[in-house]
Amino acid sequence: MTAPAETIIKDSFSRSESRKSSDPLESRPTETGGATWIATRNLVIAPDAAGQSGVAVSNAGAFSGKVALPAEGDLITIEAEVRAVPSAGGTNWVAIGLGDLPREGEFSWSKGLFLLVMNTGQFQCFANFQAGGAGPTIAIKNGNTLDFDATGMTKVKIEYDRRSHVLCLWVNEIAVVKGYPFKENQFLPDTSFAGFSGFKQTPMTQTVRNFSVTVK
Hints:
Strand content: 35-45%
Low-confidence stretches: none
Number of domains: 1
Number of helices: 0
Strand order of the largest sheet: 2-5-14-7-8-9-10
Largest sheet: 7 strands, antiparallel
């Protein structure tokens, strides 16, 4: 039997002739992999003051950017650099995740799982086993991010095996979950879409960089 081809989807959110600063991410093609972004209308291309590519929100509403994944392939790896900057003080978060069909205004990964990093430096991972994005959720892991920099980006990574139903997580390149068995917890996440999400971010403050998904 021939092994399925590897799918690699990447986007650094760089600017080009067809993708300029403040342009919406919605319906834009990814830089690599031939995917198309399904994004809330407030997600825009936004380089930082030093010219580093990334995305931000144009208002403080909930946001998400997702790409469809192929049905073939067992191992899904999602990576990005994220930063949460609350729009009105307090705490909030930015996440990467897996889930079902995107819904406008949803940020908690319906029938899927997500790994978030808060502006306080805490990370948390949840599975959300109800359609529509509203709980209940399964708490998988939480802790404090090592080498956390509130003014910089945090690297996050999800690895999920569709065949074995096992989850692994990394935060700032440190393994924080080395084999969570979903099958034993009577819930299997939907793996139709991957991407990032959050809410109440400071407008036009860069929140995500260097997103990638590999399926093999």
